[in-house]
Amino acid sequence: MERGTFSSGLAVFFATLGSAVGLGNIWKFPYLTGQYGGGAFLLVYFLCIIFVGLPVMLSEFFIGRSTRKGAVGAFEKIAPDTSWKNIGKMGVAASYLIMFFYSCVAGWVYYYLFKAIRGDFVSITMESASVQFGSVVTSAVIPLFWQCVVMAVVSGILILGIRKGIERVTKTLMPLLFVLIIICDIQALSLPGAMDGVRFLFEVDFEKLTGTAILTALGLAFFKLSLGMGTMITYASYFTKENNLLGTGLKVAASDTIVSLLAGLAIFPTVFSFGLEPGAGPGLLFMTIPLIFSQMPFGSLLLTAFFFLTAIAATTAMLSLVEVPVAYLMEEKNIPRRTAVLINGVLIFAIGILATLSADKASVLGHITFMGRGFFDWFDYLSSNILMPLGGLLIVLFTSHVVSRRSFAQELTNNGTLKIEWFLPFFFFVTRYITPALLIVIFLNAVGIISW
Ligand code: PHE
Q1: Which domains does the chain possess?
Q2: What are the φ and ψ backbone dihedral angles of 296, each rounded to 5 degrees?
Q3: Ligand 1 pocket test: which of 21, 224, 312, 384 has the largest number of ligand atoms within 8 Å of its C-beta?
Q4: Which of 321, 380, 395 to mutate to test the pocket of ligand 1 (most atoms within 8 A of CB)?
Q5: Is 69 in the pocket of ligand 1 (CB under 6 A)?
Q6: In Å, how far from its chain's centre is CA 415?
Q7: Is the CB of 85 under 6 A from ligand 1?
Q8: Residues facing residue 370 across a β-bridge
Q9: What is the pTM of this model?
Q10: Which of 22, 133, 138, 382 is in Cβ range 3.0-4.6 Å of 283 for a Cys bridge?
């Protein structure tokens, strides 16, 4: 099969950023930071990005670009006939679990876009904002309809293969999303009592830090940077051979974190100014953003633009998610692209129904729980907090113990042309010892085997 590469360094950056930036920044990051108490959670999240996220990301870049294969094939090529390729299979499983609930939340975003166009948020108040969100998540029909629309759009784009079109669209729309979030920030920060929100976000209080909070921050770092499940391996297999992997990794991680912080700086001042609950959960975004814009000139127009761009960000992140099982079916099972996309689209929607109907305690299937969690929460918990960090652990063990250090160094320096030798000893030390140790300790702490 002919394997394409991205056209330039800039295309590599935008495609990778397109996968990283999504609902994770705008929806998940703020609501988890709110639930787990603000500053201390944020600090652990930063440390996870630096000491776990970046090493795993560079390891995935190396595996993907040096083999030019998707998640399963790449391991097979480096270590033939070993069980390492199961990491890729685990990644396929993780990507399904994510898509079950991701498509549900993307459906809410599409619906909010529709509502913004219809003018549903004119003269909205705090009470009506939460009533509106409540009626969406508890409805049996509306969220399913929009989830179906999301899957149809994602599958349609993947079948048409208008990757170039998507690339071009993201290149112009991502910066626009950035500008709109900054407008939100300015507005939110000028609300009365806004500083309480900023304080909440940045004030570190270690009292609030539990084992579960640390595991959640770690899971969020994986989810945010699309790590531990093969997306970055697959994308790196399309990177140009001149690309500076370290530079791309640093730029993507930094930009992604900035977008998350900007989203937090729009949401928390609004939460505190309107007296909402920072730990309100998955509805936080949907209740605060309409409130911010309702106070502004041209608010309806800007609100429509905001949900439009968020829908685009969610859709492009989904493309990279669906690409993992699609590439697997195509490469390993010889199924044509169109069939692979259709199988996945139908399967994700069918099982995704369970997530959508259990997103809230008052949803149709909200009463069905196992060990305190419903389907929606289980899909999220298993993928972000278990499979992705476990995938990350196995990936760094693979690159630091199975692969020769020389070939990793060659890939990172582009055969010696990049002068980053000074960085390598530090990097290999972190990848070999610090990252696996942190991952193991966080796991053991979260399951209660050790505690501090
Ligand atoms: N990183 C994406 C987001 O923040 C989600 C994602 C996870 C995409 C895993 C691909 C793989 O929304």
Answers
A1: 9-446 (1.20.1740)
A2: -115, 155
A3: 224
A4: 321
A5: no
A6: 32
A7: no
A8: 373
A9: 0.92
A10: 133
